[in-house]
Specification:
With 287 residues, the protein is mostly helical. It contains 11 helices and no strands.
């Protein structure tokens, strides 16, 4: 089975246009680098992100590769270790949003009726509400902790999972082979896990990557606004916000490098998500 699945994925990847394969490779490379930084930051940066190594605002040099920040801490070390906190909050948001959005989408699409209408109204309300504003409200009410930031981002991302899963469920449950299974006495749980979930898993694989990108952006934005993970914790958005005051006087490095980390993280997950969407959805291919 595993050999067949691997062969099927290779054939599916080979059918994608060249531009999609390039996008997938670039996105995957960036994501793999971020994953390595997440698990092994000490292998890339021997310095401690909390220690003071030099005078404040030392420019980039061989001694301090990316310079020092407002307190004399190493910007490079803080960017490397910041991947742990930024990505952890994003992964918390991803887990919570998928745990809430996928089952509710299955339930709403399969049961239908008043339950579908009720859940759709609630999810559409959250979906239409600006993600950043929603994150700000939740962060202020619950407090700027790592888990709370993940919850703040998850509330805005869960409706995306709900809408995708609901539309797939509505489409699959009316197909002929599903109706045949029902006439033969198949249970609802069997139909959902045997026939609907395979479509859901393939379609949400791209959404997973795109959701991580959205969560990284939300967490960084909240940190930049001063309501994210509080200092001295190394977090890209928080460090970006602390360093912005020096930009007007030519001290660009404390804010530029954390900003670049956010940029590449968002770009990497977006490229990977777009490529997966094109690979798993034949209608998006351009052969």
């Amino acid at each position: 089975m595993e050999r067949f699945r691997a062969r099927w994925l290779r054939e599916l990847f080979s059918l994608a246009p060249k531009s999609t394969r390039i996008t997938f490779t670039i996105g995957l490379a960036i994501v793999l680098v971020l994953i390595f930084l997440f698990f092994f930051p000490q292998a890339v940066s021997p310095r401690n992100p909390y220690d003071i190594y030099d005078s404040p605002f030392c420019p980039p040099s061989w001694k301090n590769l990316w310079g020092t920040d407002t307190l004399g801490r190493d910007v490079y070390a803080r960017c490397v270790y910041g991947s742990r906190y930024s990505l952890t909050a994003a992964l918390v948001a991803l887990a919570l949003s998928s745990i809430a959005g996928v089952p509710l989408g299955l339930l709403s699409g399969y049961v239908g009726g008043k339950l579908d209408g009720f859940l759709s109204v609630i999810m559409d309300t959250f979906y239409l509400f600006p993600l950043i504003i929603l994150g700000m409200l939740v962060s202020v009410v619950l407090g700027p902790t790592l888990v709370n930031l993940g919850i703040a981002a998850a509330i805005g991302i869960a409706p995306s999972f709900y809408r995708v899963v609901r539309s797939i469920t509505l489409s699959v449950k009316t197909r002929t082979f599903v109706e045949a299974e029902k006439s033969m006495g198949a249970s609802s749980s069997y139909i959902v896990f045997r026939h609907i979930m395979p479509y859901v898993s393939s379609s949400t694989s791209a959404l997973l990557s795109l959701s991580v990108a959205s969560a990284v952006f939300v967490v960084a934005t909240l940190g930049f606004l001063g309501i994210g993970i509080p200092p001295p914790t190394p977090e890209w958005g928080t460090d970006l916000g602390e360093g912005r005051a020096g930009v007007a006087t030519g001290i660009w490095w404390p804010s530029t490098f954390p900003g670049l980390m956010v940029f590449f993280a968002v770009i990497g997950f977006n490229l990977l998500g777009d490529a997966l969407a094109s690979i798993f959805n034949p209608r998006l291919r351009r052969l």
